[in-house]
Amino acid sequence: MFERYKGGESALLVHVFLPQESDIEDLKEFEVLVTSARIEILDIVTTSRKTPQAKYFIGEGKALEIAEKVKELQASVILVNHTLTPTQERNLEKLCECRVVDRTGLILDIFAQRARTHEGKLQVELAQLQYLSTRLVRGWTHLERQKGGIGLRGPGETQLETDRRLIRHRIQLILSRLAKVEKQRNQNRQSRNKADLSTASLVGYTNAGKSTLFNVLTNADVYAADQLFATLDPTLRRIIVDDVGEVVLADTVGFIRHLPHDLIAAFKATLLETQEAALLLHVIDAADPNMLDNIHAVEEVLFEIDAHDIPTLLVMNKIDLIEGRQPSIDRDEEGVPIRVWISAQNGLGLDLLFIALKERLAKQIQVCQLSLPAHLAKLRSRFYQLNAVEREFINDDGSFQLDVRMPSIEWNRLCKQEPDLLYLINTQNNN
Known about the structure:
Rossmann fold; nucleotide-binding; 4-stranded parallel sheet; 7-stranded mixed sheet; 14 helices; Alpha-Beta Plaits; alpha/beta; 3 domains
């Protein structure tokens, strides 16, 4: 139902310089987007306007120039680096006699190519259908009404109405399936909360190195590539952080400027992993000259999904591309880590990242002395498994005297799992 690109297509790119946007970098990023969609760039047409034109967005004279270029270069599609209204898109197609796709349509197509899991495909299809529902008119100008007559009468709908009804039905079906996915994710999150597991979520601009860092930290094999939107499907793994214990690390979809609202809505279930995190690891390509704009774009999306108040640790990645830059931790006035300089590709500074994680995630440390009877030797072995025993003495009666030091998270979890420990603590406190 949704138009998909085929490998080998050739495109004419169109960009309008508007006063309120960072135009040059936006155009370069659009070229990367087009390349990511496996489309050949024939030429780039640019123009300047104070405000978009209502009919063509780009102005009538420039639209005629584009129509001539399409015939001259035999382009198969016009890609516009802006969000067009359905009317503007139709008008350009009619004038140029060529398919026109705006920035939102291009991003949706890249997402459709990248989605690998069933959930990811559902989310992309939902965004595509919501986008397509406003653009149905262009495909049905030749079918004003269904045929009448004996045996040929339809339900009294135009073809357009029929298609909109079918799309609405499909959207409701996808929403119900995604609701089940969201319910399952909520159950998983509740289980993690009951187990006192902290969650750290990787966020950042697309192609900042999130998946590479995720693979290095978790020894996972998540798909990572030097391209936009290499990761769409969220992946969760557990890592061990000193004085914190097990932490769930989540790899999420990358953000981009002017990320379509339909995509943000469609990926709600995925982005909940970000909203529920105890700490956000904002991965930044420190070697990117457009770094500050990228940070601002990520912060805008975090604000839109109501995740802007979550504590954040900046991870300045790709320092191997910056001459003279060494791994380090930047701290605020209170000595709290706020920024870590690393290279996920080369493994530089990962030890510093774990130190920063420990300091940002570690809550109170439980320190106590326990006297374990001989019959609780199994509990003693649990303390050793958790590397929580600092000193041990064996008493004359065969009981074990332990000096224990461990994160409060691990301590609370152990108390829930071992009723004997809770009983022992209460008994010793009463004595």
